[in-house]
Amino acid sequence: MSRQVVARAGDIAPGTCKIVSVRGREIGIFNLDGEYFALANRCPHAGGPLCRGRVGPLVLSDGPGRYRLTREQKFLRCPWHGWEYDIRSGQSWCDPKSVRARQFQVMVETGSSLVKGPYVAETFPVLVEEDYLVVEVTASAAS
Amino acid sequence: MKLPFRGAIDCDLHPAMPRARALLPYLDEYWRDQIVDRHIDRYSFILTSYPPNSPLSARPDWRFPTGAPGGDLDMIRRQALDPFGTRFAICNMLHGAVALFNEDMAAALCRAANDWVAKELLDREPRLRASIIVPLHNPEAAIAEIERVAADRRFVQVLLFVMGEILLGRRIFWPIYAAAEKLELAIGIHAGGTYHHAPTAAGWPSHRVEDYVAQSAAFEGQLLSLLSEGVFQKFSRLKIVLIESGLTWLPHLLWRTNKTWRGVRPEVPWIDRPPADVIREQVRVTLQPIDVPAGEAQILARTLEHIGSDRMLLFSTDYPHWHFDGEDALPDGLSWETIRRLAIDNPLDTFPRLREGAQMSDSVAGHEENVR
Amino acid sequence: MNAPIREVTASSRLAIVDCDIHPAFRTPKDLHPFLPERWRDHMDTFGEHLRHGLSGQLPYPRMTAAGMRGDAFPQEGPPGSDLALMRSQHLDANGVEFGMLMPLSRSGMEERNLDYAAALSHAVNEWQLETWIKPEPRLRAGIVVPQEDAAFAVKEIERRADNPAFVQILISPRSSDPLGHRRYWPIYAAAERANRPIALHVQGYSGGHASTASGWPTYYLQEHYAMTGNMQSTVTSMVFEGVFERFPELRVVLVEGGFAWAPSLCWRMDKHWERLRKETPRAKRRPSEYVREHFWFTTQPIEEPDDPQHLAHIIEWLGWDRLMFSTDYPHWDFDDPQHVFKFKVADENKALVFRDNAKALYGPR
User: Fold this and answer.
1) Cβ neighbours of A120 in C, within 8 Å
2) pTM (predicted TM-score)
3) Could you tell me if C317 lies within 8 Å of chain B, comparing CB atoms?
4) What is the pLDDT of residues B286-339, one digit of tens each?
5) Which domain holds residue C229?
6) B9-361: which CATH topology?
7) Which of B144, B248, C223, C243 is most exposed by smallest CB count within 10 Å?
8) Rounded-to-integer distance, Cα C112 and Cα C48, Å
9) ipTM of this predicted complex?
């Protein structure tokens, strides 16, 4: 396991992402309301620079012609094909029906009962140690 | 290959159109007066899509020196019902009234045609069932006709055309789907149409064969419309039947639509699961003309694998259109189980009204004993 | 859960041919140096006259970033307008040995004023040479011509035929009549004489017909799909009108229309031709034979079945010799060469799709 300091805690404004290089891999560090999450900057769909995508809400619907946005701004849209990912878990989101039913409480849990999209973006734990953000990367993740 | 048992349900049969003159008894006095005075009674309201003498329009042994193919009930019994051991056949009247621009005249003729079907066909031949024909100029009027005719439970479907004036997913048509869903009628979308638009995005092909080939792209456009507008979400019990559409184009549609949807999901956020799954559940496809090359069992097997559902296919002869010879209404290479599904189970699931009545239990229990 | 994504080192990467790259103007005035004053003035005063309702924007708005890759925006100008960025993020990064330019807008293909269309087409051809071909030896141009004005199109093709930088002729498949129609035949005659393929890139509008046989779609999800229908009927028209009997050397490239629909179309055409052949005596052979001999398909946007092997079946039916890799850089539905095939492809087939089919078609220019 490799731990690397990637940024100062104040470097990344809420709702934004900083892309850093860890052991030759590009990783995006996201600040969601003061909590930090890290995703590999490579979309599992077709290899696009996922972390350069837009951070924002998920679009949901109660039926044809009706649109609403989630309050939580924690979804990432890949800048290539627009696939949507939950930044916290890396889970791709192609069918949010289950999200609607659970009112996002489940989002905080590990989500084993959610209907998942077919891909998961690679995530890394981020630790806040005093003023610094530290990312843990396991050796095998570099392949 | 032939059907290996009796009791199949033929989901696409075309009795000949009654001449306008034959509809006169079924019209009110204003329309009788107009149809006769304007010489409209000399016409047959045949759609451009099916010129009577085209080889596609009728198999040679289904043509007679006089009369139109499928124009005689005895002919239909001898040619379309008896040889296939058909339990039920759904009559789809390809009546050209829908191509008129005058919505009142179109509605009057469709009403008359529906009544003619009930009296001249359904009353006289218990194996026949039918689709309700309606013009789409005015959805309210269409609903009124659907509700009127649907009181007769032998009508199992509403018949629309694939090449119309407005894509069928559009919200103005939703009250029609609400009515159909409530009345347990399927929505049938048949090849052909009114030609109120060019048949292709690059205009008007020179030849009929090009128009016929282009039907599949028209079906694709309609499926995308129904899907994108959310018709399947709004009417989750509704079944959409694609009639005379072919099926080898379906895998590409499922794959491409799934892929594109994942990227444009926020545009149509009511689609809350993969489009391919939605389509497999609510869409059906009739068998003829099957567009797998004859004798190519591997292509057929792979196509069915690509489609990914054994619930979608519905047996049909498309009588009297010429798509096969003799009684070989099935392509080679289908398992007995698959044939049973497409000939009996899937039609019963798609057209709930077929299950009604004591006759039905005979059919379901009896077909096993009637294996040829 | 994920299919593995292989890291490919630069040295192991195949040099590829990209058959669909979209160069863009930094501003419309980029065309001014190549237009006579009368037409500069026309461009500034009246602008384009197209068969749809909005000026300077699309009636089917695209999704992410106006339909572009979010990471392809240069400091100035729209995606595709900056050669340096195109080089670093695409040509260099992806080992592109040759890239085929496909100018899309202000090309004259969709312009209603045919005099203006002629001026635009000539200007776009000059612009390709000056702005892209001169500085970047990996790029190749297409002779853009307005298909609705066959007489001018022939002249422009003849003017450019001696310049090997132009490897093909670009017209719109979204034409006013299906492209097999005899009004377009002089263009095919000129293409044969110039020994260049015709390339048909999908278009959102052009000849004024609704994108489906039952009218206009509502959503981009539908409109994106409808392009494939246009490709299918274009193939059908060219086959049944007998274009390939009259022009046996003509080759046609279908760009950005996908390809998984093609075997099905061949089966449908063959089946109905059997029954209705009397109607089309100029199509002397089975339609699928014409497709195998005269059509090529670029790969993007590649179809992605849940079971990737299903796409292998399709290509087996169509033929590995029919496909030519493309990225559609810088658009959103870009296909990355490292990730485009999600099933194992034999090395000899990879070489065909990524390089050799294109090199054979476009010749050693």
Assistant:
1) 1-2
2) 0.93
3) yes
4) 999 999 999 999 999 999 999 999 999 999 999 999 999 999 999 999 999 999
5) 13-362
6) TIM Barrel (3.20.20)
7) B144
8) 8
9) 0.95
